[in-house]
Write a structure and sequence with these properties.
two-stranded antiparallel ribbon; mainly alpha; 3% strand; globular
Length: 390
Amino acid sequence: MRDLVRRIEAATPPGRDRALDALRALAILGVVLGHWLVTALISDSGTVRGASPLTHLPEFTPVSWVFQTLAVFFLVGGAVAARSHAAARARHEPYRRRLGARLGRLFRPVVAVLAVWTVAALAMLAAGVPWQTVHTLGKLVLSPLWFLLVFAALTAATPLVARVHPLWPLAVVLHVDLIRFGLDGPAWLGWINVAAGWLVPYCLGAAWARNGLKDRRTGWVLLLGGAAATALLVLLAGYPAAMVGVPGAPVSNLNPPTLAAVTFGLAQCGGALLLLGPLRRALRRPTAWAAVALLNLGAMTVFLWHQTAMIAVTATGLLAGELLGHGPLLGLHSVPDGYGWVLARLAWLPLFAAALLVCCAAFRTYEQGGRPARPSREKRPAGAREARRA
């Protein structure tokens, strides 16, 4: 392990902003842990259905404030794409060449997920598994793909949106919500916010790439202003306090994004900017940087397979319980209606993580180009390819 750490450190370009990679890693981990904590699969009369502990335990709503980190991912994505676009222009290189490589890395792992789950769904239906169960599991696995579609669209549009001020898409979100909620307008207008809402942190990242966010004062303004605006929207305008969807709730802050979700994202972006200094200092340590680099190498694989890992552990526990004559296992496929469920779910997280590591070992090569890595005859640090692509 120490040798791997040394190779990654030696292969990292001197000018790389390691804090960007750390923010991306934190955003991915936030999404994964958030899904594992607020998603329950309940065994009920021979079927499996989804539920959320936030429905029964609203006092845990602040958990969604910690682990709903999508705005940070779009912030980093906007910064990376804007820098890539500027570098391509400086070298008179067609941006579509870099875009093709970026989109390929995004969507190659999707093909593997779709193939595996198509076979799994057909096998479950052929074995007599109820359609409701297959639908629940398939929706759980495939619903995160909306994120990749939006992210890919914004990445492709970088030459057009790189210089758009974040206030413009924020104004669009404000007017859409005003019409939807204030003037009783059509609900479908909310889907405009899928692009406009996430364009706000993406454009903020592009401004960061142009060195427009150097002052720590900007971070504090975003953090405090975004937090205050979100609090006012929740307390006075009736927006949900949870920053994730809650089954049965009349309004979701994410489906589609609301003004509260966007202002909350601005607060997160401000916090991310304030973390840059501490992260850069922490990542001078080779061990810390190696962990971040390795996670970034498989970021999309982790994102795409984390729900499958949870489902695999849940299904294994359900089968084991049936064979041993036990009822639903607490924290795994029981109703999430008490503190005992929360404590039990925390105890299951290491097994979810172990299952995710197995998925990453099996499918990580699709993110890196679809072929297993082969030993190289070149005399270069063995970690060079990994560190540079992280």
